[in-house]
UniProtKB/TrEMBL annotation:
It holds the Pfam family EamA. It comes from the Bacteria. One of its GO terms (cellular component) is membrane. Keywords: Membrane, Transmembrane, Transmembrane helix. This is Inner membrane transporter RhtA. Belongs to the EamA transporter family. Residues 139-273 form the EamA domain. The chain crosses the membrane at residues 7-29, 35-52, 64-83, 89-109, 116-135, 141-158, 170-191, 203-220, 232-250, 256-273.
Length: 276
């Protein structure tokens, strides 16, 4: 019972932090390409987590380092496609469509009629939302779907580093560090020739972005993965579209249509039905 209450609450905290950071990211899109902002997010989180966890140099190599690197690169790719999506469609809509990834992971762990009903409701909700938005920006929908595929990969990769608390924190720091290094050549190509913002402001926003959108939520994800397991964690992700919609409305004035709200309600009901 305690787990059923704690895990959803932690996901609300994680989502609030993540999408407040996403609101900051949208503000940076005027000065930087979304891909560069996503790299800044992961890189800033890597710096924060390295300072807090201080992994040993040998931890970056060998099987542990390789597993963490896969997790980090998948996370960065997910962030890049997601940021490209929210540059085109509302935050809440993008997150709801992206939820197809967790639905696929949850399906792998479903055994009962109740579980499958929850997945059917969640999938229907995503279809309703995407249908309402396709005519507005099909590219944004495709990018959100790609982010959803990477979200599924993120859950699988994250479960492989979700050992004890200390190990998962170190692995997250290592993974983000590798992602920052591997993604650097791409960012160099797309980086703007001239900056429209003061470098100090950009640095401060990047740190805030890394803390809110990566360091805090992904650390919470590791806690929830250990508590709830991969299948239930995947369904719990359905809380995030609601959090994103609320923050999108408050911080970005992105109000959703009736159809999008109906689709989101179906996703919320799916979370309530699915048991750990």
């Amino acid at each position: 019972m305690r787990q059923r209450l704690t895990a959803p609450l932690l996901m609300v905290v994680s989502g609030t932090s993540m999408y407040l950071g996403a609101a900051i990211a949208v503000g940076l899109f005027d000065a930087f390409p979304p891909v560069a902002v996503a790299w800044m997010r992961v890189s800033a989180a890597a710096v924060i987590l390295l300072v807090l966890n201080r992994p040993r140099l040998r931890d970056f190599l060998g099987p542990v380092g390789r597993t963490a690197a896969v997790y980090g690169v998948v996370t960065m790719a997910m962030n890049m496609t997601f940021y490209e999506a929210i540059a085109r469609i509302p935050l809440g809509t993008a997150v709801a469509i992206e939820f197809l990834g967790p639905i696929a992971v949850a399906a792998c762990g479903s055994r009962t009629v109740r579980d499958w009903l929850a997945l059917l409701l969640a999938g229907t909700g995503v279809v309703v939302i995407s249908g309402a938005t396709w005519a507005t920006d099909s590219v944004g929908i495709v990018l959100a779907l790609a982010a959803g595929l990477l979200w599924a990969c993120y859950i699988v990769a994250g479960s492989r580093i979700a050992g004890d608390a200390a190990t998962s924190r170190v692995s997250t720091a290592i993974g983000f560090s590798w992602a920052a290094v591997i993604g650097l050549p791409l960012v160099v190509v797309v980086w703007p020739d001239t900056l429209t913002q003061h470098p100090a402001l950009t640095f401060g926003l990047a740190l805030g972005l890394g803390l809110l959108s990566a360091a805090v939520p992904y650390s919470i994800d590791q806690i929830v993965l250990r508590q709830a397991g991969r299948a239930y964690f995947a369904v719990l992700q359905a809380i995030l579209p609601v959090v994103a919609a609320v923050i999108g409305a408050i911080a970005l004035s992105q109000w959703l249509s009736t159809a999008e709200l109906v689709g989101m309600a179906l996703i919320v009901v799916a979370v309530a039905l699915r048991r750990p």
